[in-house]
Amino acid sequence: MMPPEKMPDIYEYPAHLRTELDELPAAPGVYVFHGDSDTLPLYIGKSINIRARVLSHLRTRKEAKLLRQTRRITFIETAGEIGALLLEARMIKQQTPLFNKRLRRSRQLCSIHFDGNLIEVVYAREVDFSTTPDLYGLFSHRLAAINALKTIADEEKLCLGVLGIERLPAGRACFRYALKKCAGACCGKEPVSAHQERLAIRLNAMKLNCWAYPGKIAIKESRQGKTEYHIIHHWFYLGTVADLSEVATLKQVATNFDSDGYKILCKPIISNGVDIIPLDE
């Protein structure tokens, strides 16, 4: 017999939550699974159809533990998907739900800085990622950034010594050159410029986009008569208002780079896929 802590969660349809479904809208927004605690939610999620998404949770056997602990379900309706994504990310950071394992604030967020010559790992707590050029990739810690560089090195026959990951032996080629895993930038067998060019091409696919506006912008979303303006500054989500006259009431300011905001907003903003209203000229 398996010890108690190894016993699998047994799924039973959560009939005690049936009444919670009555008020759930078939609309975009954020939903919250609450347990016995009034202050610590169990799970926060988002969907373009809150009702359909919550119903899918209730039918998922892998979520048996979450469902058994849930006592009620609340929701916040939004005007669109971007509003739901931004609100979900903020609520998870602020409330740290028990069953959410992503979108947690990373204190060691870093990126790769490469100006064509020097390559280094830099941290968001030291460098403003929204305005600093020549940044590539977002990583939760330094090791993840180094591993990304090693993967590129393996595929492009780059030298870990030239990349600054390993120490080069004085006057000799690196160990990887003998294994034919390095094209020889460390020992003159290929020009360093060729080495750096291959690196630049690969990094370009990971390039971070600098904030292109002089100040704050509003992203307008509308659905069935409901309009919201999401206020963004340097990729940082400041909040949502129903009217632009309310922007001045937002107290939060962009004090650091927001990786979640960047990931949510970069593609739609850069591609002009959303209705953007510049607020500061």
TrEMBL record:
Gene3D superfamilies: GIY-YIG endonuclease (3.40.1440.10). GO terms for cellular component: excinuclease repair complex. Keywords: DNA damage, DNA excision, DNA repair, Excision nuclease, Hydrolase, SOS response. One of its GO terms (molecular function) is nuclease activity. The keyword Hydrolase applies. Residues 26-101 form the GIY-YIG domain. GO terms for biological process: nucleotide-excision repair; SOS response. SMART domains: GIYc. SUPFAM superfamilies: GIY-YIG endonuclease (SSF82771). The keyword Lipid biosynthesis does not apply. InterPro entries: GIY-YIG_endonuc, GIY-YIG_endonuc_sf, GIY-YIG_UvrC_Cho, UvrABC_protein_C. This is Excinuclease cho.
